[in-house]
Write a structure and sequence with these properties.
This protein is of the alpha+beta class and 730 residues long. Among the domains are: 41 residues; 131 residues, no CATH class; 109 residues, Roll (Chitinase A, domain 3), CATH 3.10.50; 199 residues, Chitinase A, domain 3 (Roll), CATH 3.10.50. The chain contains 26 helices and 18 strands. The strands form 5 sheets. Strands 5, 6, 7, 8 and 9 form a 5-stranded antiparallel sheet that branches. Helix 8 runs antiparallel to helix 9, helix 9 packs across helix 26 and helix 11 packs across helix 23.
Length: 730
């Protein structure tokens, strides 16, 4: 009781302690919540209609697309490795599709447009969808039409689990991998197909809101079909000196307001000054590599173990014993050009190739005659030992030679005995393993008939049925070594730039003195968060950090630190922030906007001066007599395509209209265009030869108007969607 009384006497004090402890607990959880939310937000690569796209989801989409791109390159007979530029393009395509599909899905939902099972079935049945063409190229195609064949796909999916399990049990790892890859491609294609159908249905509905009429169709037919030939004279605005066309601040402001929509700022942007030094190899670096490759060339000449010599060099082209056609070297024109001039056994002297910045040598080991295309069938005989495999293969060959059917024997060993074509485009590539190279070499040099071929995994019964295009194949060791800068060269460039930056700490000083020190400072006006050109041209994580600094930390007038970046760590980058634009419109005070408006104002004023100068011109001869005038003949001009006079160079819609509307033999009079005042003498009018199809033209007009409306509508829909693009952070 005494203890209880003691607690009661300190009740207020205890309540305060408990309250503080409870507050601390709640605060800690709240901070944890904020931290978790902040981390999630930091991992969002974008947002549209309030829905976020996580970086991981975006990267998964990019990975899927990358796999599709690799497969398409392989089908085209190319190396399936993706370049940095191709990866950048895939990332851009993935983002643009995310934006477009999100907008279409949002608008379609409001309109009640959905993709039904029947829609998918119809698309699969017709086989016309662009999304299905890769599946057709993988073999799911009608043999007569070449179009996608849904029946063959359905058969593959129906038997997929059974065939996959059987292949796994038989140890057919290549077949298992191929089946799983095809299934992955179909899963991706199915998703793309649904998006494609939804977009088509939305576009169709949009186009149906626009109609044509017989009068409009007839005019459109005439506009596209009537061709005009005319003698044209131009008086370019450049004939007026800038000093004779002064522009006031008031005129600039008025012109800016008239064209303000050109400068809408969809998201945060910045006017940047970029100092980017691409470090390259010095003459000393080149001399050292030439000597190194010279040693390799000497070894190729004197030693028989070519594979070891090539492996010990810095070549980017792995050695293979497989003899290949000249086409295999099409991405190395210098190697391709050297093959026919070399004798077997010779080594080409060391040379520098500026096209790919490499130092090279090569040895032609052998030339052989082999088929470019071979149709064959094959049965694999795999046992515990090579001897047992060979014995089994021999017994299979004996059975077939004794009258047994090849396909039936293949089926007995749970294999496909169908005939297939093998072409050089499918296998010619650097670095093919020795076992595969030996097998391919034996098949492409075989005469039609059957024999047993041994390789590292067992023995094969091969039946060559047909050969095509026997040609020269080259077994060649290629040593192609990139010329890279040395550490000393890099440090020299780094120290020089650090010294320059130490002496020029402000953006104004850098602008003033960059040229004196041999540096080029480039402008990047209105560089938005969604603009990835700097990141893509330079590459590496350092450049991403630089752009994050611009949009997350920098202020107007700031100069960044020196970033060491580049895909090969070969760039030194410094960025100056001329201005930051966060308003809805980029203002006239922006350097690039001001420059453009001044140019537009000058052209407008010069146009008025030239128009006043040519008031008295009544015919084409009078136009030619004007000082500074140039003339040319424009042939087959139509109202549907904007003409440009070659001696002026600017597309001129007003001139196009004037030529189309002026009758044959008549003079257009003065036409004030974008870059000149024009005069035209129409010398010929050619009427369309095709028959006018009213319904077809009306349909085409409606479709074209719908497509134009979609292009016009999309930017407005993007604004309404409140798109946020955070790709610059990743």
């Amino acid at each position: 009781m005494a203890a209880l009384q003691s607690i009661r006497s300190k009740g207020v004090w205890l309540i305060g302690i408990i309250g503080l402890a409870l507050f601390a607990f709640i605060a800690e959880e709240l901070f944890r919540s904020f931290e978790t939310t902040s981390n999630v937000n930091r991992m969002n690569i974008g947002e549209i209609y309030g829905e976020t796209l996580s970086y991981q989801d975006f990267q998964n989409e990019v990975d899927e697309r990358s796999e599709m791109a690799k497969i398409q390159k392989a089908l085209a007979g190319q190396n399936d490795a993706l370049t940095d530029q191709e990866q950048d393009q895939i990332r851009e395509e993935a983002w643009q599709e995310f934006v477009t599909n999100s907008i279409v899905a949002h608008e379609a939902e409001k309109l009640g447009i959905k993709v039904t099972v029947q829609d998918e079935q119809e698309a699969l049945r017709s086989g016309q969808s662009p999304a299905l063409q890769l599946m057709a190229r993988l073999g799911f195609a009608n043999q007569k039409t070449g179009q996608f064949d849904v029946a063959s796909l359905q058969e593959f999916l129906k038997t997929y689990d059974k065939n996959l399990k059987q292949a796994q049990q038989n140890g057919q790892s290549d077949y298992v991998e191929q089946m799983m890859q095809i299934r992955k491609i179909w899963d991706f294609t199915e998703k793309q197909l649904r998006k494609e159908i939804l977009s088509q249905k939305y576009g169709l509905l949009l186009s149906q809101t626009f109609i044509s009429n017989p009068v409009s169709a007839k005019m459109a037919f005439q506009d596209q079909g009537v061709k005009t030939t005319a003698e044209v004279v131009a008086v370019p605005y450049s004939t007026v000196a800038d000093k004779d066309a002064p522009v006031s601040e008031k005129e600039l402001k008025e012109l800016y307001e008239q064209n303000k929509e050109l400068f809408r700022n969809e998201m945060k942007s910045a006017a940047l000054k970029v100092l980017d030094i691409n470090v390259t190899a010095s003459e000393a670096d080149k001399k050292a590599l030439m000597a190194e490759v010279g040693n390799v060339a000497a070894q190729l000449q004197s030693e028989s173990d070519v594979a070891s010599v090539v492996a010990g060099s810095k070549t980017v082209y792995p050695y293979t014993t497989l003899a290949m056609s000249k086409r295999a070297f099409r991405q190395m024109p210098d190697v391709q050009a050297a093959l026919d001039s070399m004798a077997v056994g010779s080594v080409k002297p060391v040379y520098y190739n500026a096209q790919d910045n490499t130092v090279n040598t090569l040895k032609l080991i052998a030339k052989t005659q082999a088929a470019d295309s071979v149709r064959y069938q094959m049965i694999a005989a795999v046992k515990a030992t090579p001897a047992e495999s060979k014995a089994l293969a021999d017994s299979i060959l004996t059975a077939i030679q004794g009258g047994a059917k090849f396909a039936e024997i293949a089926k007995k060993y749970q294999q496909n005995g169908d005939t297939v074509w093998m072409t050089s485009a499918q296998y010619e590539a650097p670095g093919i393993p020795e076992d595969q190279a030996k097998l391919i070499s034996q098949v492409i040099t075989m005469e039609p008939g059957m024999k047993v071929i041994e390789n590292g995994q067992g023995s094969l019964v091969v039946n060559v049925i047909e050969r095509k295009n026997v040609e020269t194949k080259y077994q060649v060791a290629v040593v192609k070594c990139p010329l890279n800068f040395s550490k000393e060269t890099y440090n020299t460039a780094l120290n020089k730039l650090n010294k320059f930056l130490a002496a020029n700490r402000t953006l104004a000083d850098i602008e003033k003195n960059a040229g004196k020190s041999g540096y080029i400072l480039t402008d990047q006006p209105n560089y938005t968060q969604s603009n990835l050109s700097i990141q893509q041209s330079i590459g590496g994580s350092g450049v991403k950090d630089a752009i994050k600094w611009v949009f997350d930390e920098a202020k107007t007038g700031d100069v960044s630190k020196l970033y060491e970046c580049g895909r090969q760590n070969d760039h030194l980058l410094v960025i100056g922030v001329k201005s930051l634009n966060t308003e809805d419109y980029i203002g006239l005070e922006d350097e690039s906007v001001s420059k453009l408006i001044k140019q537009m104002a000058k052209q407008k004023k010069k146009g008025a001066i030239v128009m006043n100068r040519v008031k008295g011109v009544k015919d084409i001869a009078g136009a030619k007599a004007i000082a500074g005038a140039v003339s040319d003949t424009i042939a087959d001009a139509t109202f549907a395509a904007t003409v440009a006079m070659p001696k002026v160079g600017a597309p001129e819609p007003k001139l196009t209209a004037a030529l189309s509307l002026t009758p044959q033999g008549k003079f257009t009079g003065a036409v004030q265009g974008a870059a000149a005042v024009y005069f035209g003498q129409v010398t010929a009018k050619t009427q369309p030869t095709e028959k006018f199809d009213e319904k077809a033209v009306m349909k085409q007009q409606a479709q074209q108007t719908g497509q134009m409306a979609m292009r016009t509508l999309l930017p407005a829909l993007v604004r309404d969607a409140k798109l946020k693009d955070n790709r610059y952070k990743f």
